[in-house]
Amino acid sequence: MSRSVAGPEIERLIQLLAKLPGLGPRSARRAALHLINKKDELLVPLAKAMDLAGEKIVICSTCGNVDTSDPCLICTDPRRDGTTIVVVEEVADLWALERATAINARYHVLGGVLSPLDGIGPDDIGIAGLVRRVAEGGISEVIIAVNATVEGQTTAHYITDQIGGGEVRISRLAHGVPVGGELDYLDEGTLAAAIRSRTPF
Amino acid sequence: MSRSVAGPEIERLIQLLAKLPGLGPRSARRAALHLINKKDELLVPLAKAMDLAGEKIVICSTCGNVDTSDPCLICTDPRRDGTTIVVVEEVADLWALERATAINARYHVLGGVLSPLDGIGPDDIGIAGLVRRVAEGGISEVIIAVNATVEGQTTAHYITDQIGGGEVRISRLAHGVPVGGELDYLDEGTLAAAIRSRTPF
After folding, report:
1. Secondary structure E strands in B7-104
2. What is the ipTM of this complex?
3. Whether residues B88 and B122 fall in one domain
4. How big is the A-B interface in CB pairs under 8 Å?
5. What pLDDT tens digit does each residue of chain A (201 aa) get?
6. Which residue of B16, B42, B65 is in closest CB contact with A46?
7. Could you list the residue range(s) of the whole structural domain that residue A21 is in?
8. Where on this chain are zinc fingers (C4-type) annotated (chains A, B) (predicted)?
């Protein structure tokens, strides 16, 4: 702000809110005012929730998920298929698959993808941990669920090189037409893949 | 979420973040993950800033601004023109005018506009406080800077009825072409107003 209109406490709140993804300087101001106007319903509970999260949240040392216990709820859930590991780039991807209740297995969060241009090599993401989990045995399938980007696919190939050759089946997500998607809006690569992988009707 | 993927602390954080304006359920999850990933740089400082804001922020009993002191910094600033009051709907409007360094005067935040359909009458917004401030004397001009909506203009007329007739000059914001605006995209009302209020070149 070109001129300070309020005490430094409000300015600081706006500055920090603006660092959240999806909030720019303008929406951060709006969010700050909303918080101030709803002090008891929102500001105070959110501050408490964040305090608690800051205290309690840890990274699962097995799979890289975020949770309040280590190992995380997913790694310790006996109702999950412990023989299958779904490899994802980020915790957000894990959450997306869980929301879809796509599979009832365990996960492995890489925390990134290989990207030589950005200086991100195999040691910078959780590949060693995945190799270790597979080597420990008991795993029958690894599903590589990384994004369909160049870096994602490079990472998928690297992982296949590292853990392939043994008993473990390695698979990746199917390519095809998104459910509800219109063909007219899809790129040629997706359409070609959808034709190639067509299924009997 | 259809299935709980993490402890209740994270779920609660996401739920509360989703109540901020501009954040939906999806961006709230993204914001929560961002906070968790940047615990020391963002989560902890933001929780502290919110705690502090919750403790310290008050509504100015003179003008309705939010600040950490009552009367607020603007009401007590001796370098401001105390004879002019700018009437705005919300604190956000006050901030917008201050960012523009549009005027160096005092403000009066109504906290809403007259809206009979929503059951909002003169007693529900800060009109009585404005009438009192004007009646106490020392005010030479009241600039009504409410939004150019039907409710805003109704409110402006009501205020004019309440405080008009005395020595105090009452004015409102000029209508016209926004700076940087393209005529082609403007509505007829704005263009007509811009022609009517044309200024010598």
Report:
1. 58-59, 66-67, 81-88
2. 0.75
3. yes
4. 186
5. 445 666 788 889 999 999 999 898 889 999 999 999 899 999 999 999 999 999 999 999 999 999 988 999 999 999 999 999 999 999 999 988 988 888 999 999 999 999 989 999 999 999 999 999 999 989 999 999 999 899 999 999 999 999 987 889 999 888 888 888 888 888 888 888 888 888 878
6. B16
7. 8-56
8. 60-75
